[in-house]
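Q: Please design a sequence for this.
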């Protein structure tokens, strides 16, 4: 046997050994010398489990591998052989559902996400809201970034207002409230430092003015950090106060099941002033039969509160 043949044989034996110990927990099924990752078991599990959490499978289809990776890690922690055993574990320990709920959070965010949205905000929505706020005799434009993840969205709003719009409304301040259920991502929001990959879409003049480099990260300058950050589960509570602008994008209307969407969006609507703006994701739609909203003129994914 040649040296290459011996090497290939040793590699195959190593793969079989590793597969025997870890394949089941990782969702890998072995077929002789080959190991192929399949996700049908994880898909079946999620399709059955997500409704128990008030979540919907279609929203998770494209991000399922992240959730499946977390589930594989949980199986190893519990020393369970497969997802069938985990289903039995969930049935016997109801508290595990809260842990599973945490594994189903998708903290995908970046600065200036969906450029078209922020262009609508800059050139149409925010000026109109600011004018209405001044006309009503109020001194502050109130904004809420719901399900804000690591804070990229509320910081984008603060930067956009200060650098592009504030000089048009010198007597008007802005209040930005940011909420999310995940304490870990909110800590990153409070720190306000990000990898360059999170800022690729931000226009270069805004990037240069609003950030300073610290080590390998870019950090929001102090003058753009006046954001109120709270940990809240939007399924159970919403911030106090009346808001002129609510951004609720790429979370609630993507991952929640329809009945829960309608219930939560109804509560969100109670926090929005008449004439205020609700912004949702570019590929999202408001729940059917949700009253009190009309499309904002010439602005995709923006709605005006009646």
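A: Design:
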């Amino acid at each position: 046997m040649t040296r290459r043949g011996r090497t290939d044989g040793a590699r195959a034996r190593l793969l079989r050994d590793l597969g025997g110990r870890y394949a089941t927990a990782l969702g890998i099924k072995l077929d002789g010398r080959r190991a192929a990752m399949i996700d049908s078991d994880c898909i079946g599990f999620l399709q059955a489990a997500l409704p128990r959490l008030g979540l919907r499978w279609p929203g998770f289809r494209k991000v399922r591998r992240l959730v499946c990776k977390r589930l594989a890690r949980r199986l190893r922690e519990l020393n369970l052989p497969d997802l069938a055993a985990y289903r039995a574990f969930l049935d016997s320990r109801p508290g595990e559902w809260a842990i599973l709920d945490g594994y189903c959070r998708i903290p995908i965010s970046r600065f200036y996400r969906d450029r078209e949205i922020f262009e609508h905000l800059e050139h149409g929505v925010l000026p109109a809201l600011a004018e209405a706020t001044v006309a009503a005799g109020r001194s502050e434009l109130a904004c809420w970034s719901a399900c804000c993840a690591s804070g990229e969205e509320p910081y984008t709003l603060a930067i956009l207002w200060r650098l592009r719009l504030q000089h048009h409304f010198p007597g008007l301040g802005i209040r930005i409230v940011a909420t999310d259920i995940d304490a870990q991502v909110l800590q990153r929001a409070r720190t306000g430092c990000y990898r360059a990959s999170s800022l690729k879409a931000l226009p270069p003049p805004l990037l240069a003015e609003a950030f300073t480099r610290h080590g390998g990260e870019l950090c929001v300058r102090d003058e753009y950090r006046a954001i109120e950050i709270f940990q809240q589960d939007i399924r159970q509570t919403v911030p106090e106060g009346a808001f002129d602008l609510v951004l609720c994008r790429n979370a609630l209307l993507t991952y929640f099941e329809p009945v829960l969407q309608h219930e939560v969006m109804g509560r969100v609507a109670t926090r929005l002033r008449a004439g205020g703006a609700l912004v949702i994701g570019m590929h999202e739609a408001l729940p059917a039969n949700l009253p009190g909203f009309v499309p904002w003129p010439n602005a995709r994914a923006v709605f005006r509160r009646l």
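Q: Thanks. Anything notable?
A: Residues 115-305 form a domain with the Rossmann fold fold (CATH 3.40.50.150). The radius of gyration is 23 Å.
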